[in-house]
């Protein structure tokens, strides 16, 4: 579960998916670009929305469908591309720290 108001690329979501987990994360953020149709989304400022998203993973049919989508999505990211994304994020952080 990754509630986020802002995240540059969403590495925690991708990492969860690579570990075989369903990404449950904030809608309306860059997290949707990573998880696409394999994620379960909630409104990050709503406890009810987060609770509803967590309850959705109890549906075994949904889990099977999301798992298949997640595997397809994760394989679209190669190790080199992921490393480049990390490097970009670190450079952005470094630049922000020097302001």
Brief overview:
The N and C termini lie far apart (31 Å).
Observed structural traits:
5 helices, mainly alpha, 99 residues
Characterize the structure shown.
Helices cover about 60% and strands about 5% of the residues. It is mainly alpha-helical and about 100 residues long. α2 links the parallel β1 and β2. The longest helix is centred in the last third of the chain and has 19 residues. A two-stranded parallel sheet has the order 1-2. The protein is flat and about 45 Å long. The protein contains five helices and two strands, in the order αβαβααα.
Radius of gyration: 14 Å
Class of secondary structure makeup: mainly alpha
Percent strand equals: 5-15%
Count of β-strands? 2
Please tell me the overall pLDDT.
79
Percent of residues in helices: 55-70%
Distance between the termini: 31 Å
The string of secondary-structure elements, in order, is: HEHEHHH
The global form is flat
Number of helices: 5
> Uncertain segments of ≥5 residues (pLDDT<50)?
none
Sheet with most strands: strand arrangement: 1-2
């Amino acid at each position: 579960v990754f509630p986020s108001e802002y995240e540059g690329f969403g590495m925690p979501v991708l990492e969860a998916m690579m570990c075989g987990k369903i990404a449950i994360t904030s809608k309306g953020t860059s997290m949707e670009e990573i998880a696409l149709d394999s994620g379960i989304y909630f409104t990050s400022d709503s406890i009810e929305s987060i609770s509803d998203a967590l309850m959705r993973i109890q549906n075994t049919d949904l889990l099977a469908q999301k798992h298949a989508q997640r595997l397809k999505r994760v394989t679209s990211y190669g190790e080199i591309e992921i490393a480049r994304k990390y490097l970009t994020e670190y450079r952005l952080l470094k630049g922000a720290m020097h302001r």
